[in-house]
């Protein structure tokens, strides 16, 4: 990097902070901070939803998969995400929007207290926050890895720089700042991605052009859709996981649906995000598929190849723009995660563990939300320093094995609980499926993995916990149905069109009034 590249990078950081300061004027209460007051346009929500699903792991861990295996990186990652979001645009997006518009909640998990019980809500909230600390930690480690390639700063210094900048703008401006910065980041990433695509495409003339390179020995097997550990079972498991994760299971995407004005706009938001996930990753992945022709990885997992290509192919200025693109994806995802976790803690957890939190004013709640955002980012930055430890191994292991493997047990009760066909499944089914899914993850990834020659294949490491949770949630719902009138009323409120929600139709069933002496707006009901 030279002075021009540094100027681009510093200018980007300055703009992000400025957007956060400007967004501060639009945040008057907790609802504005967590769900943009339900005033976000569907197109901005869709772009924000798309951008908040990326991080620098795309340019490190998945660049390594593309370098080693080729097009399977698209087939088994962004394609199932696009398909999952497309399905979820009808199945989940409108229902999640009604959580805000009809149940008046600010956290995606807030409705679980009435849908199941307080214990279920707390189990999912705390475990989800802990998983997010690890997940976001992997994202910080990914961007710090790239930063070290370009600037020579240490891993910990890179984590501190990116985490601090993100903390400033997302703490000040809340979800509005997240969405507006993500819009700017999308434009930056578009320019950077196109520049890299063109640079690699032109370079292919040295190797016989686009149609000639696929027969070269360096790209042997790169055109196969399912290869190595990424087979059919992995693809199907990933599709189910991403169906839950990218439609709200990881919380931050749920906020984008909640932030739109109506269920119909939430549906349009999801459809836009699905199209972007289907098309845009092809542009980003193409240079990675060609990377074995252009660079030699200095790391065993190939995670440095995209950074090496940018240094080799792009002039200064454009190099700085691509580096900004790396930051844009990571900061978009991490800031949205921080906002979601702050919502969960402020609305779902704090009132249970601290009696005083039940009587917070809007101003006090907003201050706590901002403090929680900073604390979460700090904990995730600390976790990032441990990503390459024996417990986690490397970035892609955390993202695929830990996050994908643990997503099912945590997301199934939340997501399926929205749907009428699963109305029989109550707190017993939810807690049992959650606990047994987590136990299955530990069992498959550690005791069994260590005692099987060659270890348990990756596809089973991520699919077995999901399968265990899904089966138990459904079966226990039939064996021990807990569909009380109060729970059924909640489900009907989420599933029924009308009441001016953008669809038309009959009015919805009413949510039961809280017991005497209890506040319906309180997440704990007290």
TrEMBL record:
The chain crosses the membrane at residues 6-22, 74-93, 159-179, 186-204, 226-244, 274-293, 313-332, 368-387, 399-419, 431-448, 460-479. It is a multi-pass membrane protein. It comes from the Bacteria. Keywords: Cell membrane, Ion transport, Membrane, Sodium, Sodium transport, Transmembrane, Transmembrane helix, Transport. One of its GO terms (molecular function) is symporter activity. GO terms for cellular component: plasma membrane. Gene3D superfamilies: Sodium/glucose cotransporter. One of its GO terms (biological process) is sodium ion transport. Residues 508-520 have a biased composition (Low complexity). Residues 505-526 are annotated as: Disordered. Its main location: membrane. It is found in: Cell membrane. The keyword Cytoplasm does not apply. Belongs to the sodium:solute symporter (SSF) (TC 2.A.21) family. This is Sodium-coupled permease. It comes from Streptomyces capitiformicae.
